[in-house]
Design goal:
Number of strands: 4
Strand order of the largest sheet: 1-2-3-4
Helix content: 40-55%
Radius of gyration: 23 Å
């Protein structure tokens, strides 16, 4: 009798563990499905820039999953992180794509950074060339 009781308890523990793992895996997969990929972020950025009059068809897009272009820009221009526009975006508290759009032909003030929140797909902010 005691042996059956132990077996039942062990099976219940195993069942609870399996159910917990299944729930956690499901949440992780759901999060990945809902998160924004870089291609979608680029399209969101293009739409926002078009609203401001940019011709995104003649622009080169620089974006990757490590935000390399942004990191290099900040490393070359550390004061940008102290600018009011960047501080207001609160980038250090968000998971985002930093996408750089630059004209294929050099144009004064024609470049733009667009920051897209990966979780809620919103435009966090922009830095427009001057």
């Amino acid at each position: 009798m005691k042996n059956n009781r132990s077996t039942i308890i062990l099976l219940l523990i195993l069942l609870l563990f399996t159910a917990s793992c299944s729930i956690l895996l499901g949440q992780e997969l759901e999060g990945r499905r809902n998160s924004l990929n870089i291609k979608e972020a680029i399209e969101i950025g293009k739409r926002e820039l078009k609203k401001l009059g940019f011709d995104t068809e003649i622009m080169t897009v620089m974006a990757d999953e490590e935000n390399t272009a942004w990191k290099e820009f900040v490393s070359s221009n550390p004061s940008v992180m102290e600018s009011k526009s960047v501080r207001e975006m609160k980038l250090n508290k968000k998971n985002y794509w930093a996408i750089y759009y630059v004209p294929k032909e050099i144009a004064l003030g024609g470049d733009a950074w667009v920051f897209i929140d990966i979780k809620d797909r919103s435009v966090i902010g922009m830095i427009l060339g001057e």
